[in-house]
Amino acid sequence: MLTNEHGNVLYTGVTNNLERRIREHKSGEIPGFTSKYNCVKLVYFEEFNSIDEAIAREKQLKNWKRCWKNALIVDMNPEWKDLAADWDMCI
C-alpha cells in the first residue's frame, strides 16, 4: 500500500517486482491515481508465492473499509514510515 506525505490517500496494488514498481511510482513515470495523488510512500506490503494469491488479496483489501486498512498498516508499521525510504532507487 502506498500513501502520500499526509497519509490521507491509500493505493493498493499488486506487482511481481516490488522494488521496480516503487521506483516507477516514486519517479512519476506511472500516470494515474498514484501520480495524481502523489502516492509515493510505501507503508505496507505482503508477499505471496503465487500471482493468483496476490491478486485475490489485492481484491480483498480494495473492498476493506479505510479503518481496517489503517489498522493493518499500524500493526506492521506503527509510525507509517516509508518502508522503501532507504532502498537504492536510482531515480
From TrEMBL:
PROSITE patterns: GIY_YIG. It holds the Pfam family GIY-YIG. InterPro entries: GIY-YIG_endonuc, GIY-YIG_endonuc_sf, UPF0213_domain. This is GIY-YIG nuclease family protein. PANTHER family: BSL5627 PROTEIN, UPF0213 PROTEIN YHBQ. It comes from Parabacteroides segnis. It comes from the Bacteria. Belongs to the UPF0213 family. Residues 1-71 form the GIY-YIG domain.
